[in-house]
Design a protein that fits this description.
267 residues, mainly alpha, two-stranded antiparallel ribbon, 9 helices, globular
Length: 267
């Protein structure tokens, strides 16, 4: 038994050493212990659970609007090796939030449209959430939280009965009760801001709308920050960082070809 434990420990150490060579899109060192395929499968299974347990909007205009903005951004996102298609679902909820999971699953809550008042502002949120996927933030968080669980694999996790379900869901940014979104850390959130700015700019949206979005978020908080603000830097720090990021973007004229009209019901 002692020999087996040593073998497991040595294997784990080797995994950590090899994984420490991973870098995020911005060059930040990352610890990634799980394969992209495993993370994609976990994200896809979690998303299916969410679609079963939460009301989905049947408003065709809202769905078309969110899909339009998302498609415009996805045109500049490189092909992914662990999945071939992205899926977008609009959940009928007052939550001021959105999320993206490994495996290309994107969820937008209708409550977000009360704060993201233009297509450019909505693009800032969706670009930010896609940034979490591109930067493997779920893998990174799950890897950190499960270093002590020797031999644990994502593929062996059940989303309902397994004692490891809480760890798996937390790694994806979800609560065990699907629909409850958990925050990423500040480094990951700031990194996704940078990636999101680049994506929306390349897609032809106005990146300065990200500043207006977070100003709207601050106004809507009324002393209690919305879900999207829970672990982000302070509003002033965040806005200053976004303004700096916008000023550093290359001079690409806005060339958005998609006509993403905001539905009258959300105005």
């Amino acid at each position: 038994m002692l020999r087996t434990a040593k073998t497991v420990m040595l294997s784990l150490c080797l995994m950590v050493v090899l994984s420490s060579c991973s870098h995020s899109p911005t060059g930040r060192n990352q610890l990634l212990l799980f394969s992209g395929d495993d993370m994609a499968n976990l994200g896809q299974r979690s998303f299916e659970e969410m679609k079963k347990s939460q009301p989905i909007s049947d408003d065709q205009a809202i769905n078309a609007y969110v899909q339009c903005v998302t498609n415009a951004i996805l045109k500049v996102v490189p092909p992914q090796t662990n999945f071939s298609e992205w899926e977008v679902v609009v959940f009928d909820s007052d939550q001021v939030n959105a999320f993206a999971l490994p495996g290309g699953k994107i969820g937008v809550y209708t409550g977000l449209l009360d704060v993201a008042q233009t297509s450019d502002q909505l693009a800032a949120v969706i670009g930010h959430e896609i940034g979490h996927v591109l930067a493997d933030h779920s893998n990174e968080r799950l890897s950190r939280s499960q270093l002590a669980a020797l031999g644990l694999t994502v593929t062996g996790m059940s989303l309902s009965d397994s004692p490891h379900a809480a760890m798996a869901m937390a790694g994806l940014g979800l609560g065990v009760q699907v629909g409850i979104l958990l925050p990423y850390n500040r480094a990951q959130e700031s990194e996704s801001d940078k990636i999101g700015l680049q994506l929306m700019h390349q897609a032809g949206f106005d990146p300065s709308a990200s500043v207006a979005l977070w100003q709207n978020m601050a106004k809507a908080s009324k002393g209690a920050p919305p879900e999207l603000l829970s672990t982000h830097p302070s509003t002033d720090t965040r806005i200053n960082a976004l303004q700096t990021g916008v000023s550093q973007l290359p001079n690409i004229p806005h060339r958005l070809t998609a006509n993403c009209q905001r539905p009258p019901s959300t105005q």
